[in-house]
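Q: what sequence does this backbone want?
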């Protein structure tokens, strides 16, 4: 398997769809729970800051 050091002289090329990274893939339940907890935590923090600011 080639390593990045094998291709130092060649520029990296990524397709626009791959480079954009807009798709979130949560294949495991654990990852989904962590992601949702982060979103809920952000919303709760925003509500608390809006009440006290």
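A:
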């Amino acid at each position: 398997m080639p390593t990045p050091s094998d291709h130092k002289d060649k520029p990296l090329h990524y397709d626009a769809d791959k480079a954009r990274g807009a798709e979130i893939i949560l294949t495991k339940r654990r990852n989904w729970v962590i992601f949702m907890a982060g979103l809920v935590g952000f919303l709760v923090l925003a509500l608390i800051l809006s009440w006290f600011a």
